[in-house]
Amino acid sequence: MTSFSVEPRSKMTAVLRGFAGLCPNCGRGRLLHRYLKPVERCGHCGEPYGHLRADDAPPWMTIFIVGHIVVPLLLSVEQSYQPPMWLHFTVWPLLALVLTLLLLPRCKGIILGLLWATGAKEAGT
Ligand SMILES: [Zn+2]
Fold first, then answer.
1. Does 125 reside within a domain?
2. What is the 99 CA–ligand 1 centroid distance (Å)?
3. Which of 64, 95, 65, 97 has the alpha carbon at shortest distance from 77?
4. Above 50 in pLDDT, residue 40?
5. How far does residue 41's CA lie from ligand 1's centre (Å)?
């Protein structure tokens, strides 16, 4: 009798390592290169990641988080200080841009970590 054993993968560990941009399997190799592109294989343990497709989940997660940070701040500042409009048009888009650029690769790492931990297969197979 042949049995296949699948080693259990911790979703929380994979998410935390993905957030840090590290290989969900070993936590030492890099998960992304060129900002958002997943590596084909981990440079340390050789785990394959090139087949994982995060699709629209990382941008969606990023927009969700950035929106929940920027909009309440904007409304709070407007109600408390009523700054001039030029300040609003300068500060909030800049804050949203910086947060987006910082969070997008981390969100992609989280999604790739989850896909890896749940054993997701290549799209279309
Ligand atoms: Zn690795």
1. no
2. 27
3. 95
4. yes
5. 8
